[in-house]
Amino acid sequence: MGIIEKMRLDGKKIFVTGGARGIGKSVATAFAEAGADIAIVDLDLEEAKKTARELEENNGIQSIAIKADVTNPEDVNAMIEQVLETFGRLDVAFCNAGICMNIPAEEMTYEQWKKVIDINLSGVFLTAQAAGKVMLKQGGGSIINTASMSGHIVNVPQPQCSYNASKAGVIQLTKSLAVEWAARNVRVNSISPGYIGTELTLNSPSLQPLIQQWNEMAPLGRMGKPEELQSICVYLAGDTSSFTTGSDFVIDGAFTCI
Ligand code: NAD
C-alpha cells in the first residue's frame, strides 16, 4: 500500500468541535474526503446540520450534527454518548472550538477574561478528557487540539491577552495529556495556525481594519486559508502519525519566525 493510501481515514469515527464553519468545517471536510464518519459539534445547530448534510452528500460517509457547548460538562458527556450511540466508537477528536476578544488588559472584566479561558482552554480540556476516557478504554485514538501562533507570540496591534494565554495553555495541556496517555496509545497533538481567513477574522469589525497591517508583517504577505490546515490534520488523525504525540505544529507562513 502506498503512503497516500495509508493516510486515508476510511471507517474512522471523528468528532469536530466548532465544526459548523471556519477551520473546523474545512478540516471536517478533509476528514470526510479521506473516508471518515464525522460528528459536527457546535453551539450553532442549524449551521452544524448544514455542514453535516454537505459532508454526507459530497463524500458518501455518515455525518451527524450535535448541539453542545464545550464549556458545559453535561453537554460534552451527552455529545460523547450520542457519538458512541451513532458510530459505536471514537477514533479521533478535533477539539477546535474557540473565540477571541480584543480588549485592553486594564479594561477587561473578570467575566470577559473567564469567557475566553472557559471556551478556549477549559473547553479543550473537557472535550479532550471526555474523548480520552473513551479512547483509553478502546485501546487507542488521536486527539488534535487547536491552539494558535498566539500561544507562541503576542499578536499586535490588537490587545488579546486572554486569547494568547488560553492558547499557550492549550499547547502545554496538549503536551501534558500526551505524556500521561502515550503508553496507552492515545496520541495528543496541537496545531498552531497563523492568521486564517474565517468569520473570526474576516467578519470581525474590530479586526477587519488590521488585515492589511498583518499582511504587511507576514513573510508570505497574506493570511492563510482554512484549506491550508487540512493535510496536517489528516496526517495527525491517521495511522501514519503513530510516532507523533505531544507535538505542536505551527502553520503560519513563517509569521512567528521574525
Ligand atoms: P469561527 O468563529 O469561524 O468558528 C468557530 C466555531 O466554533 C463556530 O461555529 C462557533 O459556533 C463554534 N463555537 C464557539 N463557541 C463554542 C462553544 N462554546 N461550544 C461549541 N462551539 C462553539 O472560528 P475559526 O477561525 O474557524 O477558529 C477555529 C479555532 O481556530 C479557534 O479555536 C480559534 O481560536 C483557532 N484559530 C483561528 C485562527 C484564525 O485566524 N481564524 C488562527 C489561529 C487559531
UniProtKB/TrEMBL annotation:
Q: Which InterPro entries match?
A: NAD(P)-bd_dom_sf (IPR036291), Sc_DH/Rdtase_CS (IPR020904), SDR_fam (IPR002347)
Looking up PANTHER family in the UniProt record yields: 3-OXOACYL-[ACYL-CARRIER-PROTEIN] REDUCTASE FABG, SHORT-CHAIN DEHYDROGENASES/REDUCTASES FAMILY MEMBER
Q: Looking at the Swiss-Prot or TrEMBL record, what is one Pfam family this protein matches?
A: adh_short_C2
* Keyword Oxidoreductase among record annotations: yes
One of its GO biological process terms is: small molecule metabolic process
Any GO MF annotation of the entry: oxidoreductase activity, acting on the CH-OH group of donors, NAD or NADP as acceptor
Gene3D superfamilies the UniProt entry points to: NAD(P)-binding Rossmann-like Domain (3.40.50.720)
* Protein family (similarity comment): Belongs to the short-chain dehydrogenases/reductases (SDR) family.
Recite the UniProt keywords alphabetically.
NADP, Oxidoreductase
Its name, as the record gives it, is Short-chain dehydrogenase
